[in-house]
Amino acid sequence: MQYTTGTISIASGTPTTVTGVGTRWLANVSTGWVFKLQSEDTIYEIQTVTDDTTLVIDPAYGGATISGASYVILRDYTARYQWPILLKGNVNWAAVLSESLRRIDSDLYETPSCRYIKFVPQSAPSSPVEGMIYYNSSSQAFVYYTGAAWRVIQSTLLT
Known about the structure:
- The chain has 159 residues and is an alpha+beta fold.
- It folds into two domains: 104 residues, Elongation Factor Tu (Ef-tu), domain 3 (Beta Barrel); 37 residues, no CATH class.
- Helix content is 14%, strand content 31%.
- The strands form two sheets. The chain has a seven-stranded antiparallel sheet, with no helix packed on it.
- A hairpin with a 6-residue loop joins β3 and β4.
């Protein structure tokens, strides 16, 4: 579930320091998690949890000094890749989804074996590259290009 306890202030002179009132961040927040002002669309990443009332964020906050503002910290992530998860009751779900997609896109691009994953409606890409994978929605199967031909990727469940 998202963490929203207390309110926050950010001074324009120290735009990476978030000061909380009534927050208990040490026990409830971790570095790498998503921080967002409820009144804005910008997503920040928590760089440091200094104490129960001080966070360091990145990128720097670019607005005017704010005080007593509502915020949200996303606390639910996938175990393997730390992608944000949408849960029933989340506020600002569009921002959570956008951040999840941004992280997935970045992770796929930075993983050489995943650079050629393409999702196309029903046919193979016209200029395939060896290693390219696409999801064929007609046959409901992932297909892999060997450099010479397309092959269906078979899956086997171990019991």
